[in-house]
Amino acid sequence: MHELSIAEELLAIIEKRASQEGIRKVERINLRIGEYSGILPESLEFAFEVLSQGKLTEGASIEIELVSPKFICGRCGTSVPSPERGCPNCGSCELSLGSGDELEIISFEGE
Amino acid sequence: MKVTVMADILKANDLLAKDIEKVLVEKGITSWNIMGSPGSGKTATLERIIPMLPDSMRAAVIEGDLATSNDAERIARTGVQSAQINTNGACHLDAAMVRSAMETIDLREVTILFIENVGNLVCPAGFSLGETGRIIVSSITEGDDKPEKYPSMFRTADLVLINKMDLLSSTDFRMDYFMKGIKKINPKADVISISARDGSGFDELISWIADHTPSSR
C-alpha cells in the first residue's frame, strides 16, 4: 500500500548515486524484495514508472529478485520455509523470520 | 556502466528513526508505537490508559490519521499534550512526520510518548519511528485469524492487546485460535485481554506499561 513512498526513496537513492557517478540515463535497476516485505512488486514498478516521468530513470527496466521467507527455529536453529506447522526437527513453535523482509536496491546500470 | 548500491530502500527512514530514538533516550522518554486496524480501539485504549498512569509517568500523544484532528482532540480532553499528524492519504506514519510532530510538543515534562499510528494492519510495520516498542490493539470483532493474516505486523509487536472483550460472547471469536496464531508468529509477544469500554484488563495493562517503561522508575 505504501509503494509510492518506497518508489520516492528508490528514486532519491538512484538520483544521488547517479550524479556521483556521472550517469545521466538509467536503463536497468536491480532490486531484491522479500515476499514478507509487504511490498507488491507490480505496484512498486507502477509507482516508480509514474515518478520517473521526465527524470533520468524514465523508461528504465526494473528487475526484481524475489526472496522467499525463511524462518529460524529459536530452540534448535533449524531453517524452516513456513511457520505454519512449527519446527519439523524439534516441534517448537518459536520460529522467527530469518529472511524474506528485504527491500533493497542491489545495483543500477546506465550511461 | 553498472553501479553497485546494496542499500536498504528504507534506510533514509531508518536513519531518521535512529535520530528520534537518540533524542528520546537522551530525554529519558519511553515511546510506544500503537498500531492496529481502523476501529480496533487504539484511541479509546489510550483514553483509558492516560488517567490511570502513575504520577511519575507524564504522557504525551502523537495521533496519526489520514484526515481530521478528532483523535488529538479526544486525547487533549484527558489533559495531556497531543499533536495530530494528518498523512493526507499516506497509509502509515514515517519518521519524518513524527519528528515534526515532536517539535510541537514540550518534551521536557514528558516521560512516556504514545504514537498512535494510522489504522492499518499492513504498512505501519515497515516504518520505524524510533520507538522503544510496539503495541498492537486488535479486537474481538476483527476475528481470530488476524495474527496469521497479517504476520508482518504481529511479528514486530512487544504487546498485543485483545480489545472489546465485553463483546466476546456475541461473536465466534476463538481465543485459543488467536493465541495459537500469535505464538506461531511472535512467541515473545505478551498478550493482554482488555475492554476499553468497561475498563477490564487495564490494571494488568498499566502494570505491563510500568514494567516496560524504564523512564518511570
Strand content of chain B: 15-25%
What is the C-alpha radius of gyration of chain B, as a whole number of Å? 17 Å
Outline of chain B: globular
How are the strands of the largest sheet of chain B arranged? 4-3-5-2-6-7-8
| Terminal Cα span of chain B | 57 Å
The arrangement of helices and strands of chain B along the chain is: EHEHEHEHEEHHEHEH
Helix content of chain A: 25-40%
Task: Give the strand order, joined by hyphens, for the main sheet of chain A.
Answer: 2-1-6
Note the main sheet of chain B. 7 strands, parallel
Largest sheet of chain A: 3 strands, mixed
What does this entry look like structurally?
The complex is a heterodimer of chains A (111) and B (217). By secondary structure, chain A is an alpha+beta fold. Chain A contains two helices and six strands. Chain A has a single domain (3-110), classed as hypothetical protein PF0899 fold, CATH 3.30.2320. In chain A, the strands form two sheets. Chain A has a three-stranded mixed sheet with strand order 2-1-6, with helices on one face. A three-stranded antiparallel sheet of chain A has the order 4-3-5, with no helix packed on it. Chain A is elongated, with a radius of gyration of 18 Å. The N and C termini of chain B lie far apart (57 Å). A seven-stranded parallel sheet of chain B has the order 4-3-5-2-6-7-8, sandwiched between helices. Chain B has eight helices and eight strands; from the N terminus they run E-H-E-H-E-H-E-H-E-E-H-H-E-H-E-H. The interface between A and B is medium-sized, with 36 and 30 residues.
